[in-house]
Amino acid sequence: MTTGGYGSWILPVLVLVVVVPVAAAAYWQLWVLTAIPIGFLFGFFLQKGDLCGTSAFSEVLSARDGSKVFGLWIAILTAMCGFAVLDLAGLVTLNPKPLIFVNYLVGGVLFGTGMVLAGGCVSGCLYKAATGNLNSIAALLAMPIGIALVEYGPLHGWHTGSKAIRVANPDGSSVTLASLTGLPFWSIATFLAAGTIVIVAVRRSRRGAPKASAPARPWPAWLFRSWRPWQAGLAIGLLSALAYLSSASSGRNYPLGVTHGVLHAELLLIEEDLNHVYQKAPKAVQSSSPAPAREAPAKPAGKKVVWWLVLLILSLMAGSFSSARLSGQARLLPKPPGQVLWAILGGLLVGTGAAIATGCIIGNILSGWALMSVGTILFGVVVVLANWLTTWLYLMGADRSAWSAGS
């Protein structure tokens, strides 16, 4: 494919969604606008590597292929190293999630099961829906319902109570690999990065000399082809560090996450009385003279909408569509009615499970593991096991002869 035709529009689009928002954010000091280029590039990278958590875990069992899991690990590891640099530079305050083990166990089972039925996790359905996958569109429409059941519906009381059951360090902080080992965050990140590099180098040396590479193509060629999962993972990991800076500057001290962005986008359509969050709360100004007694400020009414998350998911879908359009993969993919119905149920389970667990593959595994949260590591293990069981029953069990031949 040449760089004409499909690709003639990509430079203006990049200027519009990357350069303009960053310039506007710097001019008005409204850093929430930087979520637009972050989301666009995130969706672009996800689609290029087809890096969906559902297929990454399922293909280990169904196709004996761990390349996407490795790509996800590269994303986690790169993000972890990026967070270590930001932490050492004092640019962010690391904010790992607490060990709310009941939520991670229950939410992980629902999420891991639902993601197989839906054909994608939250981020997977976002980027696949943008390229025309009918199952992902159906699942994505059901996800906010599942999230709302937990955040505002009949499961809210139980959810609030279960979050109070937590394991913490003696000082009340979240349990992490750093707190368990007593080692600095940066040293663990360095050790894991070095260990991964050594393992990859040893495995490559055992495979012998690499095959001759294809002739070099013009530099824009990478825009028009799919990427290897590890390449997409590396790009996403680097982007995660920038996302942490962008998010922390916008009133949300956490890296990439998409679950509540889906819910908040729906709230903008159906609710009027909302509490909009788009920048850091101003610091209280201290005075040497005693201040007169005042009444406590009223708590903002309405359900919270974090605009950083909303802009992230909307631009994520735009980035995914742009990537697929460049590769000629943006087209409606009809699915059998039975699959669509299962996808709707899967989307409902994914939304419910993600809300109970306070995150999904992106918020809990990519960002959570990169922050070394032990709670999110537990969530990841449960999700993988539930994914494999559902893959075996729903996907591989649907064609026993093919499964037997493959094994």
Key words describing this protein structure:
single chain, 407 residues, mainly alpha, two-stranded parallel sheet
Question: What does this 3D model show about the protein?
Answer:
With 407 residues, this protein is mainly alpha-helical. The protein has one domain. It contains 17 helices and 2 strands. The protein has a two-stranded parallel ribbon with strand order 1-2. Helix 12 (259-270) packs across helix 13. 46% of the residues are buried.
SSE diagram, text form:
Blueprint (H helix, E strand, L loop, with lengths): L9 H19 L6 H15 L3 H10 L4 H22 L12 H18 L3 H9 L3 H18 L4 H8 L13 H5 L3 H22 L22 H20 L10 H12 L3 E4 L25 E4 H21 L9 H20 L4 H10 L3 H22 L4 H7 L1
Parallel strand pairs: 1-2
Helix pairs in contact: 1-2, 2-6, 2-11, 2-13, 3-4, 3-16, 4-10, 4-11, 4-15, 5-14, 5-16, 6-7, 6-13, 7-12, 7-14, 12-13, 15-16
The tally of domains stands at 1
Order of helices and strands: HHHHHHHHHHHHEEHHHHH
Poorly predicted ranges: 285-297, 400-407
Strand order within the widest beta sheet: 1-2
Using only CA atoms, what is the Rg?
Answer: 22 Å
DSSP helical segment count: 17
Overall geometry comes to globular
What's the overall average pLDDT, rounded? Answer: 89
Q: Percent range for helical residues?
A: 55-70%
Structural class: mainly alpha
Could you tell me how far the N terminus lies from the C terminus, measured between alpha carbons in angstroms? 37 Å
Largest sheet: 2 strands, parallel
Number of strands: 2
Strand percent estimate: under 5%
